[in-house]
Amino acid sequence: MSHNLSDRALPFPLARIGIIGGGQLGRMMVRKATQLGFAAIVLDPTPNSPAGQVAGHQIVGDFFDPAKLRELAELSNVTTFDIETIDSHALEELLDEGFSILPSPHLLATIQNKLSQKQLLADQGIATGKFVELEEPTPAALAEFGYPLVQKAQRGGYDGRGVEIFHDDSEPERILPVPSLLEEYIDCELELAVMVARGLDGATRVYPVVEMVFDLEANILDKLVAPARITPEQAQAAQDLAVKTIEAIDGVGVFGVELFLAKDGRLLVNEIAPRTHNSGHYTIEACVTDQFEQQIRAITGLPLGSTEQLKPAVMINLLGAAGSSGRTIVEGLDDALAIDGVAVHIYGKAESRPLRKMGHVTVIDDTIEAASAKAEQVRELLKIRGERAL
């Protein structure tokens, strides 16, 4: 069956969607797929994964097992993913055989390597910070590039891992001993993100610009403000740059485009996520069409939905508490849900670990200030921890 469902009368389920990755993104995607009348099949190494809990079928297998990837593709009309650390080479072979895999495995392979991703942006004329390749990281190489700087591992970085920021040469022991790239450190006014959806026909829909506040210790998104507190002109420029970026790389699906708004006024693309993204979770409660439904629409050839934001929103991540691990314990849920406008998402991860993403909370209200105040209340009330002290 073709993945393009336009103008077709189809029996239920409309199609089978394979999802590589059974985490929280896959879980939320499965819910939207089934809402629209699709069946979902998940591939994940963890039995009863968060996405597997809500899907009709989970294949237990590794993301780098070509046989398992083939099994998923053969059971699916279209295959997508909720994680980037997968065997893109095996997916490229399946694509060449005629299987439908979106976004393109060729694009995924480029984005998986932070260096080739940056080179793609530069080649397409997309504004981004200065960078150089660094195959053998040494203090001398960092000094030659010039401080302050950011070192990123070419592969494997995720949720703050594989990234080090250096303001001077005082901590050479922190240099990542892997093939890397060095980037100029951007003196930021704000870190922004824009979710962009692009369909099989090239149509695009762009979401409002959001403002990201990071936990500096963990380098993980801590709080998101939607829409971002920037001028209309800045917002339009950010949306235009994000759409230009996804059109330039010929992406199909939903993409998270992370941006820097520099203090000198420059708008620069930092990184692209070729999937639904943490910065788009607010869309579930705050927008007409959320990012997960949009992904399903995009990869199946259905019309893209409205990205209009209905109310201001603030999102906070729920991370596993420090000092504990083991079976997940949720505290303060009653008190948090007693606050108007609060939506709690618990991801279904059986084990909590320090700083692990365990859920998120979105608060909607009439103003950003009111939503933010409620989000901070929830942060104090709602805790997720493991049952064992470390």
UniProtKB/TrEMBL annotation:
Q: What class of enzyme is it?
A: ligase
Give the Gene3D superfamilies listed for this entry.
Answer: 3.40.50.20, ATP-grasp fold, A domain, ATP-grasp fold, B domain
For the ATP-grasp domain, which residue ranges apply?
A: 118-300
UniProt keyword Nucleotide-binding present: yes
Query: What molecular function does GO assign, one term?
Result: ATP binding
Q: Name one GO cellular component term.
A: cytosol
What's the catalysed reaction? 5-amino-1-(5-phospho-beta-D-ribosyl)imidazole + hydrogencarbonate + ATP = 5-carboxyamino-1-(5-phospho-D-ribosyl)imidazole + ADP + phosphate + 2 H(+)
The alphabetized UniProt keywords are:
ATP-binding, Decarboxylase, Ligase, Lyase, Nucleotide-binding, Purine biosynthesis
Which amino acids does the record list as binding ATP? 114, 152, 183-186, 191, 270-271
User: Which InterPro entries does its entry note?
Assistant: ATP-grasp, ATP-grasp_carboxylate-amine, ATP_grasp_subdomain_1, PreATP-grasp_dom_sf, PurK, PurK_C, PurT/PurK_preATP-grasp, Rudment_hybrid_motif
| UniProt pathway annotation | Purine metabolism; IMP biosynthesis via de novo pathway; 5-amino-1-(5-phospho-D-ribosyl)imidazole-4-carboxylate from 5-amino-1-(5-phospho-D-ribosyl)imidazole (N5-CAIR route): step 1/2
Q: What is its EC number?
A: 6.3.4.18
Q: Name one GO biological process term.
A: 'de novo' IMP biosynthetic process
Q: Which family does it belong to?
A: Belongs to the PurK/PurT family.
What role does it play? Catalyzes the ATP-dependent conversion of 5-aminoimidazole ribonucleotide (AIR) and HCO(3)(-) to N5-carboxyaminoimidazole ribonucleotide (N5-CAIR). Catalyzes the ATP-dependent conversion of 5-aminoimidazole ribonucleotide (AIR) and HCO(3)- to N5-carboxyaminoimidazole ribonucleotide (N5-CAIR).
Subunit-level organization? Homodimer.
Q: What is this protein called?
A: N5-carboxyaminoimidazole ribonucleotide synthase
Species, as recorded: Methylohalomonas lacus
Q: Mind giving the lineage of the organism this protein is from?
A: Bacteria, Pseudomonadati, Pseudomonadota, Gammaproteobacteria, Methylohalomonadales
